[in-house]
Amino acid sequence: MVTFLALAAAALAGTGDFFGGKATKKTNIISVLAISHLLGLFVILIIAPLMADEFKSSDFFLGVLASSFGLCGLALLYRGLARGPMAIVAPITAVACATLPVIWGVLSGEKLSTTQLIGILIGIIAIFLVSWIPGQSKPIKSSLIVEAVIAGLGFGAFFIVIDGTSETTAPWPVVGSRVFSVLAIFLFVFIAKKNIKPAENSISLIIGAGVFDTFANIVLLAALNKGFLSLVSVLASFYPAVTVLLARIFLKELMVKSQVFGLALGLTSIALLAAS
User: Fold this and answer.
1) What is the number of other CB atoms lying within 10 angstroms of the CB of residue 93?
2) Residues 6 or more apart from 165 whose CB is under 8 A from it?
3) How is residue 265 annotated by DSSP?
């Protein structure tokens, strides 16, 4: 069940990133973040009372704290997806996203089997290979890579913080996360006097980003509540595979042999982690 939930979160997040990346190519990033997060808040406010067994203010505010990291990561990710190829930016972010919680989980005392450790190592290598495109005609700017890494660390910190919530309160921590992100974004919009009216041809993409990202967080929280942080973080970090495949299908972005091999290694990692 944990493996299924983590992979479902990856699929939802990868699809949300695809929509978000496409939206930022058509309109400004503030419009994408503001509208998608506001929509996500409405969705989760409807769902939370129906799902949660109880409400704890401590878990709600852990969601708020997690969001401060996640929002930074999302903003940098969307910026990177707008500036560079999806098949580069998203996987680099995922490597950093997966590695930080693994280190944290192991240092916090999670006992992993040899098979699990091998699966984690193969998974991180797989994510790296999916991100590596040798012999590109256009070099990737170092600033783009740095931003992608920082975005991943932000997501990793989100995993770590929200993992501290209890299963009985889910998905209220996600509500806390969304409340913070919406307030932060709209405060910035007000202070900076930004126009958040999106381009008409981006509205459906923004809606897609908001809905998929919200459900990704709900499913991710369920996975974290049931399994080890280190294992869930690696499985959930396979979301770039979805982004890459969607970019290949709909945007005709090319996949080189290293990426295909990385996807194959990813399947191997998933099999090892699922079997353990």
Assistant:
1) 34
2) 59, 62, 63, 173, 221, 225
3) H
Structure-token match 């889910």, residue found: 170
Rounded to 5 degrees, φ, ψ at 170 are: -65, 135
Q: Which of 121, 108, 95, 211 is nearest to 161 (CA)?
A: 108
Q: Is the peptide bond before 101 cis (omega within 30 degrees of 0)?
A: no
Q: What are the phi and psi torsion angles at 113 (to 5°)?
A: -75, 170
Q: Residues 59, 212, 149, 83: what is their CA dihedral angle, to the nearest 10 degrees? A: -140
In angstroms, the CA 189 to CA 38 distance is 13
Q: Quick one: three-class SS letters along 99-161?
A: HHHHHHHHHCCCCCCHHHHHHHHHHHHHHHHHHCCCCCCCCCCHHHHHHHHHHHHHHHHHHHH
CA dihedral 196→198→203→208, nearest 10 degrees, is: -50
Contact 153, 73 (CB under 8 A): yes
Residues in the chain: 276
pTM exceeds 0.90: no
| Sequence-distant (≥ 6) Cβ neighbours of residue 248 within 8 angstroms | 87, 254, 255
Handedness of CA 223, 229, 232, 238 (dihedral sign): positive
Pull the structure tokens for residue 22. Answer: 């496409």
Q: Answer yes or no: are the C-beta atoms of 130 and 241 closer than 8 Å.
A: yes
- Domain locations in the chain as residue ranges: 2-275
Please give the full DSSP string across 148-206, using - where no structure is assigned: HHHHHHHHHHHHHHHTTS-GGGTTHHHHHHHHHHHHHHHHHHHHHT---PPPGGGHHHH
CB–CB of 15/247 below 8 Å? no
Q: What is the pLDDT of residues 136-192, one digit of tens each?
A: 545 667 788 888 899 999 989 999 999 999 999 999 999 999 999 999 999 999 999
